[in-house]
Amino acid sequence: MILLAQRLRRDGVQLLVWILATAALCFSATAGVSEAFAAESERQTLLAVALANPAILLFRGLPSGASEGAFLVFTILPFLVLLGALMASFLAVRHVRAEEETGRADAVSATPAGRQAPFIATVAHGLIACVLLGGATTAAFIAAGLGGGGSVALGGALASSAAVFLGVGLVSAQLFRSSRAANSFSVGVILVAFLAAGIGNAVGTPSDDLTRMESSGLAWLSPFAWAENVRPFADDDARPILLAVGVSVALLTLAAALQATRDLGAGVISPRPGRAAASALLSRPLGLATRVSAGSLLAWVVGAAVVGALSTSLGDVIDEIATQNPAVTDMLDRLAAQGSMDQGLVVTFFVMVGTLAACFGVQTVQRARQEETHGTAEQTLATPVARARWLGAFLATALAGIVVIVAAAVAAATLALLARGGDPAILPDVVVAGAGQVLGAAVFPVLTAVVFTLLPRATTTLGWVLVIAAASLALFGALLGLDEDIVSLSPFAAAPVPAADGVAWNGSVWLVVLAVAGVASSLMLMRRREVATGG
């Protein structure tokens, strides 16, 4: 109980902000949908458009009807599950692997508490956080005027899916020796699950009235789809919640077994032994920053390449499945004059690529904070290396990595298009969308660097919050009825995109100004602040 109380007190503010912000999002989303799509006929039309162009379902929920509650779930549930997944997995890694990295776990294990008590306290802490998240969202929907049964079903779906990713985070904390690697693995699993649910829904079976979609078998491999198939405010089916609970119990059991058998501080997967002598690359700050970021860069490159390939390879599959339904065929004919579905698909997928690239950039700058708290930065800065040059090395690595990640996605999209014999006329759109997301993604490591110099302790939290908030605005803002000027505050939405008559430059100028000013400010501020070694 003492360890649990310590964890609750330590994470109190952070979890409170996370949970209340999610609840506030639910409440405001309900109001936004009610205002923007007040008439059922409007909701039916939008659902028909979504089912006629299933690419929309890749980044939205599972249509379950045109009622106000079911439509709200369609617009927002995947993002809510994403927030819960990140909250739970980060919590798990923070209180298991990060504690071992800092040496605090050694001190606790030397007391009568032993090795298992901290792990049990972390499991209890994580489950409490998941339940509170589900309860807060339930309360928000009820306060917004939605039905109690559907609100409870939605809260249960969110809590159970978050518990699954709590298990993922705990298992990854056992597998890897560093919290950075464990978090990267967890985020990778979350993104794969997100895409699996989206693709599984997109290739599902639409109803004849174009208001409901049945998920394909692929979707059922993802906890996101389990939450969506609860179908709150429509079916309120508890069976997917039971499935999620069963999987979370299995993952927690696996994590406990690994915790009991491995050495404290070690990971199940042993790191590759280092060289006896450092290479010339490590004699410079840029070489060091590149070396410590190489592993995570490879993981983000693979993820972006998969997303890029999907952007040009899913069009035929979606068209074939969509046109099997006469109502969908009719809707597609009416949409044909409104623009290219392939072009819209590319832009949507490359917003996700930009998000992945931004995640790498933020993670790389956060590495500077980790070097500082672990004391290794102090050793480096005790040499003739200047502080601005040291931070600049991480910034340069982050920005170069963003270019590499997006370039990998563009290359994968090109190869996928050529492999399926698609129309090469879409390739310029791929290049424009990719280049635009390089510009949008570059803003985030720069802003994280500014936070690092001004508020070092907030580097990790604010870095991820900025990316999540911007991605949610770009992907969900329009559907939630937000004003276009508000949506364009997201660098992902303000980035240049292909248009019917060339390139829509959007907010390119302010993105460039923000990036340049941020780099200059962070390097100038770094020259003046003291090195902080505390966590």
Secondary structure elements and their pairing?
Blueprint: H1 2-10, H2 12-36, H3 40-52, H4 68-95, H5 97-102, H6 104-109, H7 116-143, H8 148-175, H9 179-202, E1 205-206, E2 213-214, H10 223-228, H11 239-261, H12 285-313, H13 315-322, H14 326-335, H15 341-373, H16 376-381, H17 387-419, H18 427-454, H19 459-476, H20 484-487, H21 491-494, E3 497-499, E4 502-504, H22 508-528
Antiparallel strand pairs: 1-2, 3-4
Helix pairs in contact: 1-7, 2-4, 2-7, 3-14, 4-7, 4-8, 4-9, 7-8, 7-11, 8-9, 8-11, 9-12, 12-15, 12-17, 15-17, 15-18, 15-19, 17-18, 17-22, 18-19, 18-22
Structure, explained:
This protein is mostly helical and 535 residues long. It folds into two domains: 1-269, no CATH class; 281-535, no CATH class. The protein has 22 helices and four strands. The strands form two sheets. The chain has a two-stranded antiparallel ribbon with strand order 1-2. The radius of gyration is 23 Å and the shape is globular. Residues 331-339 have low confidence and may be disordered.
**Neighbour order of strands in the largest sheet:** 1-2
Task: Summarize the amount of helix as a percent range.
Answer: over 70%
Q: Averaged pLDDT, please?
A: 83
Overall form:
globular
Q: What order do the SSEs take from the amino end to the carboxyl end, as H and E?
A: HHHHHHHHHEEHHHHHHHHHHHHEEH
In total, the number of domains comes to: 2
Q: How much of the residues is beta strand, in percent?
A: under 5%
| Strand segment count | 4
Structural class by SSE content:
mainly alpha
Summarize the biggest pleated sheet: 2 strands, antiparallel
The Cα radius of gyration reads 23 Å
Poorly predicted runs = 331-339
- Total number of helical segments? 22
Our measurement of the CA-to-CA distance between the termini, rounded to an integer number of angstroms, reads: 24 Å
